[in-house]
Design brief:
mainly alpha; globular; binds protoporphyrin IX containing FE
């Protein structure tokens, strides 16, 4: 995928604000989730399996969101029903996110885009990127946190399908779990004055 062709995907753009989270804060978060060099390697290997399957993974995640009124409400258009254009636009960036989680170095550029995506879940920036007038103006923080579970649990079968053995599945799964947890913790920043 040529990332420049994904509408609204602005990773690395010079126009992005600098994250209020420092690289030191990030390193402390990584230590808190027991991140190791082995996780880096396992995450890279996970990316090789998950990246090509992003579309199938998104089918599972969108199926999950679509089966809960209070979640799909976040994608409502002006008329209150789910806006397929909005869902489609976010889906393309979400697929790229799977690749980015696994393959990008967690440097300043990465941090700045985490900040941007975090804001896109809040009243500050939700709906702006895709120019939608959704009545849902914010994703509640409690769901961002709770999403760690479905975004993690649903990944195991995709890894297991292609990994050689159970230990390898477990290593990649743990690296993914830690990475999603780091992500959710980072994205909590704009919601919380005592982050
Ligand atoms: C946007 C991931 C929680 C609804 C996105 C994007 C990603 C993502 C990758 C697109 C980012 C981009 O613009 O490049 C995640 C992760 C979550 C999470 C990792 C939790 C750990 C949630 C929850 C909901 C939700 C709980 C509620 C259903 C949305 C919506 C957008 C979005 C509506 C589009 C926001 C906009 O208008 O720009 N999410 N998400 N997300 N997500 Fe989430």
């Amino acid at each position: 995928v040529k990332t420049s062709s994904i509408p609204g995907y602005t990773y690395g753009s010079k126009t992005l604000a600098t994250s209020p989270v420092s690289l030191e804060d990030l390193a402390r978060l990584e230590s808190t989730v027991l991140w190791t060099d082995d996780d880096v390697a396992a995450l890279r290997r996970a990316g090789e399996i998950l990246g090509p399957q992003a579309d199938r993974i998104l089918d599972v995640w969108y199926g999950f969101v679509g089966s809960h009124d209070f979640l799909i409400a976040s994608f409502a258009g002006a008329d209150g029903t789910a806006n397929p254009d909005y869902l489609g636009a976010v889906r393309a960036r979400f697929a790229q996110w799977i690749v980015d989680v696994c393959s990008r170095d967690r440097d300043q550029e990465w941090l700045d885009y985490q900040h941007e995506i975090a804001l896109r879940h809040t009243a500050a920036k939700k709906n702006l990127t895709d120019g939608v007038s959704s009545p849902a103006s914010v994703i509640n923080l409690r769901y961002i946190i709770a999403f760690i579970v479905p975004l993690t649990a649903t990944i195991r079968p995709f890894l297991a399908e292609q990994a050689p053995d159970a230990d390898e599945v477990e290593a990649m799964y743990q690296a993914w779990f830690k990475s999603v947890t780091i992500t959710a913790a980072l994205w909590a920043e704009p919601y919380s004055p005592s982050w």
